[in-house]
Amino acid sequence: MYTIFQPISPLWESFPITGTAENAAASSLGGSIFTDIFKATINNVREAEDTVAKTEYLLSTGQLDNPSEVGIAQWKADAATQLLIQLRDKVLSAYSDLTRMSV
Question: Is residue 20 part of a domain?
Fold first, then answer.
């Protein structure tokens, strides 16, 4: 049996919010935590979509023993896409709030 599922890692483990020297060095090099989070989320969506394509291929060629893996992969891809959409909407909302502020 061929399984291609990998565990989901929480975003907060990849991007610590505490003000460490490593985070300060990363931000001084031009990277920000927001950019890193968006890149990780976009990569997560891409990987989830690739997993869906692989499981659908394996199912269509008869190499997949458990057809429910396709549904699980589709659900994970949908959840990853919804997370990206929610992050985008929150950032756009915060940006519009900032532009409406008077100084």
Answer: no
Percent of the chain with pLDDT over 90: 56
68 occurs within a structural domain = yes
Residue type, 49: E
Residue with tokens 């532009």: 99
| Domain range enclosing 77 | 30-100
The answer to whether residue 98 scores a pLDDT higher than 70 is yes
pLDDT band per the 50, 70, 90 thresholds, residue 11: low
Residue 7 counted as domain residue: no
pLDDT of residue 62: 92
Give the separation between CA 24 and CA 18, rounded to whole angstroms.
10
Per-residue burial over 36-59, b = 16 or more CB atoms within 10 Å of its CB, e = otherwise: bbeeebeebbeebbebbebbeebb
- Overall domain count for the chain: 1
